[in-house]
Amino acid sequence: KPGMKTADLREFGFDEGVFLPNAAFKPPSPYSPEFVIRSRMVNGKRENYNVDTGKKVGAGRERSYFWKPHIDLMNFPGTTQDFTYWPHTEELQAEYGYSTYGPDVESE
Q1: Domain map of the chain by residue range?
Q2: Cα-Cα-Cα-Cα dihedral of 85, 86, 89, 94, to 10°?
Q3: 86: burial class by Cβ within 10 Å (0-12, 13-18, 19+)?
Q4: pLDDT recorded at residue 107
Q5: For residues 70 and 38, is the Cβ–Cβ distance under 8 A?
Q6: For residues 93 and 68, is the Cβ–Cβ distance under 8 A?
Q7: Please, are residues 32 and 102 in contact by the beta-carbon 8 Å criterion?
Q8: 3-state SS, residue 97
Q9: CA–CA separation, 9 and 82 (whole Å)
Q10: Which residue from 88, 95, 97, 89 is spatially nearest to 68, judged by alpha carbons?
Q11: From its phi and psi, is residue 38 left (phi > 0), alpha (psi between -120 and 50) or beta?
């Protein structure tokens, strides 16, 4: 959840889970684009812009969680680490592309 940006998810007693990676503890997923959005002052007003294009954007600074999403699997069956980036199998990685949508991390 947005309010858990600096929380270590291992402290909450989850057996397993599907989360957005916590930027305070983990770099972005290597499978997902990182849209670099910064703020600048224009005519006395703050506006967000895309660093890659220089164009103004309406959205704030965030990681992708719909299109080619950043997804972190915690204690997921078939994995050997506490946290593993999704897609986590060779089959899912081979299918991963521009039309990929990830698992629903906001189901509750």
Answers
A1: 16-95
A2: -120
A3: buried
A4: 47
A5: no
A6: no
A7: no
A8: coil
A9: 10
A10: 97
A11: beta
The pairing of strands 56-57 and 45-50 is antiparallel
The amino acid at residue 12 is F
Nearest one of 93, 88, 92 to 77, comparing CA atoms: 88
Instruction: Write out the two tokens for 31.
Output: 């499978």
Q: What length does the chain have? A: 108
What phi and psi values does residue 100 have, to the nearest 5 degrees?
A: -80, 130
Residue 44, pLDDT score: 95
The whole-number mean pLDDT for each consecutive block of 10 residues of the chain, a chain of 108 residues, reads 69 85 72 77 91 81 65 88 89 82 60
pLDDT in the model for residue 1: 53
The amino acid that residue 82 corresponds to is: D
13 conformational bin, left if phi > 0, alpha if psi -120 to 50, beta if neither:
left
Model-level pTM? 0.62
Distance of CA 49 to the CA centre of its chain: 19
